Amino acid sequence: MTYSALEIQIQTLPESPGVYQYFDQNDQLIYVGKAKNLKKRVRSYFTKQQQSGKTRALVRKIARVSHIVVSSEKDALLLENNLIKENRPRYNVLLKDDKTYPWICIKKERFPRVFSTRRMINDGSKYFGPYTSGKTVQSLLGLIKDLYGLRNCNFDLSESKIAAKKYKVCLEYHLGNCKGACENLESEESYQLKINAIADILKGNFGSAIQNFRIEMMSLAQDMKYEEAQRIKEKIDTLENYQSKSTIVNPKITNVDVFSIVSDSTHAYVNFLQVSFGAIIRSHTLEIKKKLDENDENLLALAIVELRNRFELESNELYLPFSLDLGEELKITVPQVGDKKHLVDLSRRNATYYRMERFKQIKIVDPDRHADRIMAQMKSDLRLAVEPRHIECFDNSNIQGTNPVAACVVFKNGKPSKTDYRHFNIKTVTGPDDFASMEEVVYRRYKRLLDEKQDLPQLIVVDGGKGQLSAGLKSLERLGLRGKVAIIGIAKRLEEIYFPKDPIPLYLDKKSESLKIIQQLRNEAHRFGITHHRGRRLNESLQTTLSDIPGIGYKTAEILLKHFKSVKRVSFAKIDELEPVVGPVKAEKIYNHFNPLTDEDN
């Protein structure tokens, strides 16, 4: 089955919140949209019957899909708004009134005011937001006003004017909403402490404010002022539900380029974000195929030069995950916390998603290349001499030592080869001895392969830690295969990988594809072994109960269990309940077996 490039892009989109962008055959941006689930939303354009003629016309023109992954639906909404304003795509609603989202401003002045605004003025004032909900802004401003009692007048409270007594306290002072800074009834230092606390809340650092609220709420509750305590609780809920961080960061971050890199043994992926006035206005990910063993520093430096030339970037400051020497004319920032670090993390997240999508696309259009990459990665991660094209995994199953069995599952080129799966009934071990059972089945498996001159695996995986691994290794030594076939053990608790004669386990990255293949092997062996074990226990149960009844065979016993669900229910069944299932003759035999006649009955 063949797929177009667009179909492959849609199939491999992440199921994360973000913004999607549609481009036409001339690579012109024609539409920007937001989504809670990118894959589901974009796919809906191509799977459901569109009612709108304009939407059908849009879909016909789509030649390529691009996307930017963000942290939340709120971030997607804000990012969509900025991209539409920046690019004015043909099929998006034109924001003719240039509506912007509201910010909260701490004005740069003596005794600063705190208010809502949709206009940002570069006068040294601090702006927080933007906010997608005006209700949230008003709630926060009300909260700040109730807590800290700030002024809301627009007087010029300079020292000279206050000293000249130009102003008189207003009604807000008499209502307790203001401390009267205009008549010098509040010091500038005391007022500034409140402003600093408000700035912390608006940045999201409101732990101390919440703690103070809780103390006040408990005090009011102890004084039985429950209505006031409830109002404080509502303020706490507002603070706890409030999120001040978004993809739109501090508006002072402007004319900045953000770069990050994600790499593996064969490729590197460099993501770039262009930021203007705190808004992301462009995102692009570059894929680089490694030729030698290049490190991330060299690859990132190469990619930065390429992307700056390609997009004609003129910014003088770069945010990077690590320091690079790119010349004195460029300022390099390696952020550790805050909005800048948030941007670098977001860039890395987009690079990671792009890498995952490329893997999914390769798996669809070129399965052999996908298998080659996985095998090369496993060879590197597990320190093997050859690629593990043929892997076998063993698992033991028993319950309280009964019916011990083992399973061997086989993967070829990273995929299950179910025709090669094998079951083993343990023959030489009595009781629940996992080590001895593992030694037996490994020996039996490879003794047979050697006798029949069949191909041996490149890697053997045993489910368990050092003990099971040592048991498997003993069998390989007896067969003269030690050192010829690699063998490892995987312990379930921490997913530790053990190697022969190495007391320190290997811990693979939890997202590593090599670990996922090993986990899949282990889980498949466990499933296959449990299925066989249940079958043996069922057979034994049938043979020792129903099938022991004279005239009742295995098939009849199976029919009875299927209908009555348990042997106990069969034993309590009346003849008229048994007859429709097995007939009158067998029904009588079964009933008499569980209800033998006594002397009193005679």
Topology:
Blueprint: H1 5-11, E1 18-23, E2 29-35, H2 38-47, H3 53-61, E3 64-69, H4 73-87, E4 103-106, E5 114-117, E6 126-128, H5 134-148, H6 159-163, H7 171-174, H8 188-203, H9 207-222, H10 226-241, E7 256-263, E8 267-276, E9 279-289, H11 296-310, E10 317-319, E11 331-333, H12 338-365, H13 367-381, E12 390-399, E13 402-412, E14 415-416, E15 422-425, H14 434-451, E16 459-463, H15 466-478, E17 486-491, E18 496-499, E19 502-506, H16 513-544, H17 554-564, H18 567-572, H19 575-582, H20 584-594
Parallel strand pairs: 7-10, 10-11, 12-16, 16-17
Antiparallel strand pairs: 1-2, 1-3, 4-5, 4-6, 7-8, 8-9, 12-13, 13-14, 13-15, 17-18, 18-19
Helix pairs in contact: 9-10, 12-13, 14-15, 19-20
In short:
This protein is of the alpha+beta class and 602 residues long.
* Alpha carbon gyration radius: 36 Å
Query: What do we call the CATH homologous superfamily of the largest domain?
Result: UvrC, RNAse H endonuclease domain
What name is given to the CATH topology of the largest domain?
A: Nucleotidyltransferase, domain 5
Outline the biggest β-sheet.
8 strands, mixed
Q: Which structural class should the secondary elements be placed in?
A: alpha+beta
**Number of discrete domains:** 5
Spatial shape: extended
**Helical segment count:** 20
- What fraction strand? 15-25%
Can you tell me the residue ranges where pLDDT is under 50 for at least 5 consecutive residues? 243-247
Q: N- to C-terminal separation?
A: 76 Å
CATH architecture of the largest domain: 2-Layer Sandwich
Percentage of residues assigned to helices = 40-55%
CATH class of the largest domain: Alpha Beta
